[in-house]
Write a structure and sequence with these properties.
β3 and β4 form a beta hairpin. The protein is elongated. Strands 3-4-5 form a 3-stranded antiparallel β-sheet, with helices on one face. The protein contains 11 helices and 5 strands; from the N terminus they run αβαβαααααααααβββ. The protein folds into 3 domains: 74 residues, no CATH class; 102 residues, Rossmann fold; 77 residues, Uridine Diphospho-n-acetylenolpyruvylglucosamine Reductase, domain 3 (2-Layer Sandwich), CATH 3.30.465. The longest helix has 23 residues. The chain is mostly helical and 262 residues long.
């Protein structure tokens, strides 16, 4: 809601999209709240419904379904608090530099510098009704435990607002990641000789970018360090091939690495 209001105020041509995942009773009625707010502030509106069955990896599957009905450049209302939660999630998953750089700012995340409380205050001051998603309090989701348990504990231990600190660190790490990307761009990740000659951090980064392109939907998580080391072992002539998941493997032929499926 706050994103829609701010986008209209900034002079953008705005369409608010409500996506109903059908995961809880009454969710379809929430479209009316969005439609009313869109009409009040002069935004266009449309509602979409997707089917997401309960079960494992619910958040990831709901996100994928949502993306299917949104345009690729759709803006989302992620805030600095979402950024901090994402970084801490990536940290416990063992993510590298890119994961610790978090969500990248830009047109798709235009209010990333705002705090969640500021978006709520904006809606409250304008009398805009918002909906509290009860799934955001469900402790079975790791993000919710980070939000409601870990971050408050970190605030208490550090005696400061840790979310703001983590979000600022993400901006610095993103700059470092961009520099390494620029340096790694000169490496041909299919060339065994170039990978062998490159510093290990750049070789891994070149391979990571190449392997992500093997996912036709672009939805896969970045390859793990273990996966990258398996592929580097192929480049070093320590192995003839390496499985990287999803029925995809990397093979070495005539001094080049090749991706094969099936």
């Amino acid at each position: 809601m706050a994103l829609m209001i701010l986008a209209v105020e900034a002079g953008c041509r705005v369409t608010a999209v409500h996506v109903d995942h059908g995961l809880r009773a009454g969710s379809s009625a929430e479209a009316g709240l969005v439609a009313d707010a869109a009409g009040r502030f002069g935004a266009a509106f449309r509602s979409e419904r997707v089917a997401v069955a309960p079960g494992p990896n619910l958040e990831a599957r709901a996100r994928a379904a949502r993306r299917q009905v949104l345009p690729p450049d759709a803006a989302t209302g992620h805030t600095a608090d979402d950024q901090a939660e994402t970084i801490l999630l990536n940290l416990v998953r063992g993510a590298g530099l890119d994961g610790l750089a978090g969500i990248r700012p830009g047109p798709r995340h235009p209010i990333l510098a705002l705090r969640r409380v500021e978006t709520r205050q904006l809606c409250a001051e304008l009398g805009v009704a918002i909906v509290e998603d009860p799934s955001n309090d469900d402790p079975s989701h790791r993000r919710n435990r980070i939000r409601h348990q870990l971050l408050p504990l970190l605030d208490e231990i550090a005696e400061r607002d840790v979310a703001a600190v983590v979000a600022r660190q993400a901006a610095l790490l993103a700059d470092d990641a961009d520099l390494l990307d620029a340096l790694a761009a000169s490496i041909d990740p299919t060339s065994v000789a170039e990978l062998a000659a490159a510093p290990a951090p750049l070789a891994r980064r070149a391979l990571r970018s190449w392997l992500r392109q093997a996912d036709p939907e672009g939805e896969a998580h970045p390859p793990t360090l273990t996966t990258l080391e398996r592929v580097l072992a192929v480049a070093r002539h320590e192995a003839r091939s390496a499985q990287i998941g999803g029925g995809i493997s990397v093979h070495r032929r005539a001094g080049r690495l090749r991706i094969e499926r099936g």
